[in-house]
Amino acid sequence: MNTRFVTFVLLLFVWLEGNSVWAQYLPKLYQVFSPDKKLVMAIQRHNDGLLTYTFAANREVLIKESSLGFKLESQETVPSSGWKIENVSDRQVRNEWRPLWGKRAVVKDHFNELVIDLLNPAGQPERMQLVVRGYNDGFAFCYKIPEGEGECVNVQSELTAYNFAGDYTAWFYNGENHNIGPEKLTETDGTRLPVMTVKAGDRHYMAIHEACLETGAPLVLQSKGGESLFSVASKPADLSPGYTSAWRVVLYGTTPGVLTDSHLLELLNPDPDSRYDFSWVKPGLAVWDWRINGAVWDGFTYGMSYPSWVRMVDFAAEQGFKYLVLDANWYGPEFESDSDPVKGEKAQDVQRLLKYGKEKGVGIWLYLNDVGGRKYPIEKTLKQYGDWGAAGVKYGFMSGTQEEKNRWTKKITELCAQNRLLVDFHDGPVHPYGQMRTWPNAVTREYCHAQLDGHHVFEPKTFVTTVFVNMVAGPVDMNNGMFDLRQGHTTRVDESQPVPSTLVSEAARTLITFSGVTILPDIPEYYRKYPALLNFLSAQKMPWRESRTLAGEIGEYIVMMRETDDAYLVGAATNESGRMIDLPLSFLEKGKYTVEVIEDGDDAHYLTNRESLKTTTRQLTNNDKLTLKLAPGGGACLVIKKTPSMRVREQATFPLVSPSEKMNADIKVGGKNVEIDLFDNGEKVVTAKTLQFSLDENTLKGNWTVTNQKRKSVDQTWQPVYGERSVVTDRYNEVELTLQSDENRKEMVLSVRLYDEGLAFRYAFDKLDFWNRTVTDEKTQFLFQEDCKTWVTGMAQGAYSETKLSGLKGAADRPQVIQVDDNRFVAIGEAALVDYSRMKLEKSEAGFGVQSVLSGKVNLDLAGYRSPWRYVMVAGHPGKLVENNYFVLNLNEPNQIANTNWIKPGQVIREVTLTTTGSMACIDFAAENNIAYVLFDAGWYGAEEDVKSDATTVTVDPTRSKGPLDLPKVIEYANSKGVGILVYVNKKALHQQLDEILPLYKKWGIKGVKYGFVNVGDQYATAWLHQAVRKAAKYELMVDIHDEYRPTGYSRTYPNLLTQEGIRGDEESPSLDQTIYTLYNRMICGAGDYTNCYFAERVTKKMGGRAAQLAKLVAIYSPWQFVYWYDRPEKSPRRASGAGSVESVIKTDAATRFYNSIPTVWDETRFLEGEMGKYAVVARRSGSDWYVSMLNAGDKKQISLPLDFLKNKKNYTATLYYQASKQKKDVVDIKKIKLDDRSEITIDLIGNSGCVLHLRQNISG
After folding, report:
1. Secondary structure of residue 1083 in the 3-state scheme
2. Which of 138, 706, 956, 1084 has a CA-to-CA distance to 215 between 20 and 30 Å?
3. What positions does the domain Glycosyl-hydrolase 97 catalytic occupy (predicted)?
């Protein structure tokens, strides 16, 4: 258990001191807090081995001790008395999620996680994990059986329960009927369906649901009368290796609106499968043909006919609505098995309509009944719909058990995704559980009583209950917005009931209800009859930037705000009681607004006067307050328009400041270019000229204007799986400008972020405007005011040289460091290069500066219509640029690997003999010296450059070794010694066999793969290589990419990419000045596989000596540190001959024991002083130990080192590993010094050498 977790426990006891209410339930073991520390879930293990949990919020217990686990068919419980807690780990995650569509554009994904690993020594399953996550708006937990662990075990039931601490009030989902509730918990008897919404007091609300249901039956809850205990009654899947249960979720809020606004369910689902591009998914409003059949207006009769459909499409296009939904019977009677969903009655008209809709910019949805969906091959049907160009599928009346329906729903959703179809499930669908994160095309489902469904209407109280119960689960298709509310002969055929609502309430409900497609049930003429309300509908331009429940109470009323790019929209609705609502406008940004208020008329009533309304327009600010009058069963609609200064600036400067205001940028828009002036402490540093592209060999032309801007600020931290620091700060301000060219009105988006560490920007191309276009050139320029000094290398593994900007020749690899003045350095580079062509930098065509040059053409479709980030880091010292290199990681997407326990950094030694005997000797040496891995480099499967060499077999290259090599035996031996095996594979075998070797290596027990001589630079090579990293992650294989690849931060997204070369390492015998150049330049972009040598002859003849090699091991960061590169253990046999034969023998002494103990990952990193190419002093902390590396490429130098970075007032013992004599490069001298954190130490460094100062905190201090 780590110290941070212990701190959590101590905090809990401090928090609870004196709280008698809590004391009786105080758990004995493990607690997980929400990030804001207001919620806590405590896990207790009892003497019989059973686990229970308790949930508290704001110092009040809401769920008492409740059971966890499973009951097997053998009647055993899991876990039980024989089970042991094998390990407990925790982590903090501070990420953000940007959904394609949803309630808001940016979602915080902040949680604390606890994982309890349970071991069953005597039976099955062998192991189980309990994973608990705490968010600010609730908790979730799930059960996992690790992959490959034991046999499948049959389960009788799940033991999870919710033992509420009081007799609270609850509401439940109730199919296509009014919700069950309110009812007291003790009055509930029997089964209930989620969502279960609970009111536990005036400031305590909870919702019980599940997320990410992969297997097993959907959640059912059960209670016995007279109790406040609810248990899970749905049968889980059997416990087999790789099993993961659904997340059991307890949402919490101090108001019911917090539950409705939550994204917790989506966050517990995985990101979309990388195989699918969902950029085509567009939410919006739709018109509908189902409730208007037979309606007559001005001599025109609506029906299921092409003329009616055209009329609806024209109306949708006129209003900016995205879709028309064709409902049942277009291909024949929906319940008849002879109705062919592809060749049915009106299939020809439908195809004609699809073409017409495309011309008008309106997508067409097609209804499909379960009868036709199952009788006719569903794959062919959905493919045909996709080929026709349909926008989506409304799937009705699905049959089967709930578990069967869930499987069928998932299958249809994926098939729809494959064919670029949205999907809406109707008529008793499986409840939503956050799956729209994984499948953004699953835009809604009828998990509610939809208005007029089956010709039935619902009451006002039903609506204001459903939004706090059903809608908590996800988007619901509720069909609000009926404007013909009369009784008798209306536009609604066969309706004898009036709609118990008001016109204003019906319009408001379309906004309040969250759905990816809002389906309007009435005819166009009835909407045109009420222009103010139609304007409110047309203003609903999804996706929403922000959504917030401003006020509300379950079953009584709700006030919802949703923000678009150019307006804030507010909808309010009440139950059968009228009410006055005070609405402060403090949710608005600072500024003036035009506010249109549409309210019920003074005499409006949902039963007697439904159509009465009044409209007012006012000029208000965010400091004002409105009072809304809602009639019984009525509502209110507000359109709050942003001023032009908030929306559109045609020619202007858009300022941006960094979080501390250290840096600022002026983004100047107007004319052919968009320029960004970057200032540091008020002084101009650089001008970036953007949008200089050539597409299909033609320069991107036109004058640019801004049509929209979005701003946001982010202040968060996240914990890397490994790194140069244990916590990374991610703080920036961002502006996103939508730019339009007067040449063909094409649109692009320029996103600009400003951190205290520097500037970053990227381009996004509108998909419709730039469909399948190719970027043939990009000339983004970075211009300086003077002819600055810079350091460049043309190759990733090349040597650095110093020159002036005016003297640049050829293209330089990034990052490129430029000295602006005596106290200011910048680094120019790129981040998040995943599927684009690599950028290099060449001399700018005008002025003093550099400009981008691509390493190949870019197909925008393959690149996802956006570029990597281009960045300019700024610091007062080149070492500070390297210290701030987390900036590059922050520009990449968060970690996509759910379980990273298998990703383990460490030192690596190369096995050089390629023999069984030598391998075992090397493994023995690694085990004895705490070296984590042994690498089998080139030659183990044959000649690496020979296309015939088979990387699925062990066939030693005879030019490297005579063998024999029994690799399975070696791996088995390594496992017994706790040493991991890594293997090298050349690009020739990688390209031919990647999909074959990765699962095979996983089966063999290989821990990682070194990708050798990979192709880099062009778009195909870049995309292929990162896909190869993702594929390796699937099989829990770590990766090292060798040769010309330089990182751009992808190790944040896929941390199985531990390291990469792209560096002039010890294979090239670099001089010490080149190593220091490398440190200050190359290491800005991330970890470098340096292949550190120690005993090899080149260390003393060409490099800085062995003490310098120790220093390099600290200074040059790599989570996998490849050590003793040209050396072999003393017991390892010498190779008689062969390419790259290694003769130097490793000799153990105090220096090598220290060399073997140097960490490869760090908790803190600081660059203390230095000078480009001359010397460097780097301090890194691991735990409480500090390692200070000093490298000196010049003459003898005295370094006075203040130790004020030792924060704790404790005594330290320092051990100095250094070279005392210039002539004895092969000797590492050692001396000890005692000091405390107020000390200053003076180090005399001889020329061309290095040293390491190891500061260890005294135990007694």
Report:
1. helix
2. 138
3. 293-446, 914-1063
